[in-house]
């Protein structure tokens, strides 16, 4: 069921973006029409996203692990250099909880709070109803509150180091007014985390999650 949800969620986000691309390429730009709208240089977006970790990330405490993601609130702010290019700061005021299921029946969980800086390119014109965008940047995620069954590592603490790496984004903005818009996006966070037992490294876990979300934003 989780894999089905993952596929549907990512497909929905990409479908929305594909529709936006199609609209953008099929529309004819009118150079004689001038807009009276004052360019907006800043935008903020509040939303909700679901994190979908990699299905087979590796081993934790010597056992093959399966990860199940959960949702969290998201928040971002962007400075728009011009009508197409922007710099975005994205993160979560809350934390994503990830449930861990081990091959020997052991269970656990941890929480992570990512933050990312990305450059974005927005296609089309600011006045069109749907504007797709792509982004590329760097992120780090604070992992804490690791909790595992006492039997997982003989009662020793199981921890995970800070994952960090590139982040890629694809999404679309759906203009409601010249200031207010809705957003759908999918973000891929490429990263590993070193697992440790009682502070001793025991291997790397390939997290590589997708974060699929929706939100509402405003431009200023």
Automatic annotation (TrEMBL):
Q: Which UniProt keywords apply?
A: Signal
On whether Manganese is a keyword of this UniProt record, the answer is: no
Source domain of life: Bacteria
What is the protein named?
Answer: Outer membrane beta-barrel protein
Which GO cellular component term is one of those annotated? outer membrane
Return one Gene Ontology term, BP aspect: transmembrane transport
Q: Does the keyword Cytoplasm apply?
A: no
Q: Which residues form the signal peptide?
A: 1-22
């Amino acid at each position: 069921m989780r894999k089905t949800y993952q596929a549907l969620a990512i497909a929905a986000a990409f479908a929305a973006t594909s529709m936006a691309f199609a609209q953008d390429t099929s529309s004819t730009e009118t150079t004689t029409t001038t807009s009276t709208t004052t360019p907006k240089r800043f935008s903020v977006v509040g939303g909700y996203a679901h994190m979908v970790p990699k299905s087979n990330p590796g081993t934790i405490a010597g056992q093959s692990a399966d990860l199940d993601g959960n949702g969290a609130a998201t928040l971002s702010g962007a400075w728009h250099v011009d009508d197409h290019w922007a710099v975005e700061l994205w993160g979560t005021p809350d934390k994503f909880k990830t449930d861990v299921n081990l091959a020997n029946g052991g269970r656990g969980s941890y929480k992570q709070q990512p933050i990312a800086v990305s450059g974005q390119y927005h296609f089309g014109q600011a006045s069109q109803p749907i504007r797709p965008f792509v982004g590329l940047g760097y992120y780090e995620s604070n992992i804490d509150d690791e909790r595992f069954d006492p039997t997982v590592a003989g009662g020793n603490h199981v921890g995970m180091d800070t994952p960090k790496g590139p982040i890629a984004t694809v999404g679309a903005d759906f203009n409601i007014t010249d200031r207010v818009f809705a957003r759908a996006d999918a973000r891929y966070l490429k990263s590993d985390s070193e697992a440790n037992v009682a502070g001793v490294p025991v291997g790397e876990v390939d997290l590589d999650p997708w974060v699929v979300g929706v939100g509402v934003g405003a431009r200023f």
